[in-house]
Amino acid sequence: MSYNKEEKLQKYAELLVKVGMNVQKDQRVFIRATVDAKDFIHLIVEEAYKAGSSDVKVSYGDDRLAQLNFQYRDQSAFEKVPQYLIDERMDYARDYAAQLALISSSPENLKDADPAKVAANMKAYGAGFKEYMKMMQSDQFSWTVAAYPSPAWAQLVFPELEEAEAFDKLLDAILESVRMNEADPVQAWVEHNDNLHAKADYLNQKAYVALHYTAPGTDLKVGLPKGHIWSGASSINKDGTSFMANMPTEEVFTVPHKDEVNGTVSSTLPLSYGGNIIDEFTLTFKDGVVVDFDAKVGKDILEGLLNSDENAKRLGEVALVPHDSPISNSKILYYNTLFDENASCHLALGSAYPFCIEGGKEMNDEELAAHGLNNSITHEDFMIGSAEMNISGITADGQEEAIFVNGNWAF
């Protein structure tokens, strides 16, 4: 059965509510979006109420207002998050509301802003929402990150097209990435979920002590903590309800040991961070810490990211994505981490997910650190995969076994 665009958007809204957040009867819902997506947000809100939600709150952002704020406000205005914003989001988090972040902003929205203001703003948000992020990263509540186009983002992705045509093309690509072109999208997600879990199960049985990455510009060894858990696709919240954190998703991921990363890694796709692009960058690690870095584009922005706090120079995630995957094969560069990370193996600077180690959801910060997990106010994925990427798992007796060969799964 094929659907027209309006029907696909309705089905997409339903998918985000029922498969993404998996909204339950009488559950509250908190949605963050930009005004560009308001018409689609209306569909999501209606679907959430149909699913039994008791309260759906939408917090809107506006890209042009953000530009004006950065242009005219002093840097001191970006050094602290207004308490009412923190209180509102924490009210929903403590009530275990389902949460949706719908991404639409142009990745270059703040390219003309003062990098010092951008760095201060990102640092302030990381610190202000630290408790919220800790609850989210330990899956206390259901959370989903998804996307909907804006004209500015679409023009960045498809600069050769007129605005309306670019918008439609990006929308089509997003809908295809979340399997809306399948006859039964929900069943397609069930099967996709099973496939990713099978990969994670295999790696969990292997219990490698480290990973070795080799590719042009990359020779990196990443230690894995004892009791690490590979995850993929659906997660489980504190009530035992499944949800999909990222839509789309193609990754299987775990936590690295924060002190056991050595070597150099090179990016293979641009990173959108703080309304800016960082591209063609390298990071060199020693005993878990970035000791040298360079970037052809956005080096000052990268420096701000690395200096977010004392642990932003350490890794918090390793993720495996085959080069032969739907988003990679689309040959579209989205300039958006939600999509580009699902076209490529990636790492993340900053905080680790507690659910990726045995017993981690019940551990405090000190216990997690003792097990090798990083704690930071930031968590930023960056893409390192390619058709030339080889990854081996190192066993407890020092043997190397192929996990990825020429960018794809070896098993």
TrEMBL record:
Record-level GO BP terms: proteolysis
GO molecular function (one): metal ion binding
Keywords, ordered alphabetically: Aminopeptidase, Hydrolase, Metal-binding, Metalloprotease, Protease
Cofactor: Zn(2+); Co(2+); Mg(2+)
InterPro entries per the UniProt record, alphabetical: M29_Exopeptidase (IPR052170), M29_N-terminal (IPR035097), Peptidase_M29 (IPR000787)
Entry similarity comment: Belongs to the peptidase M29 family.
Designated name of the protein: Aminopeptidase
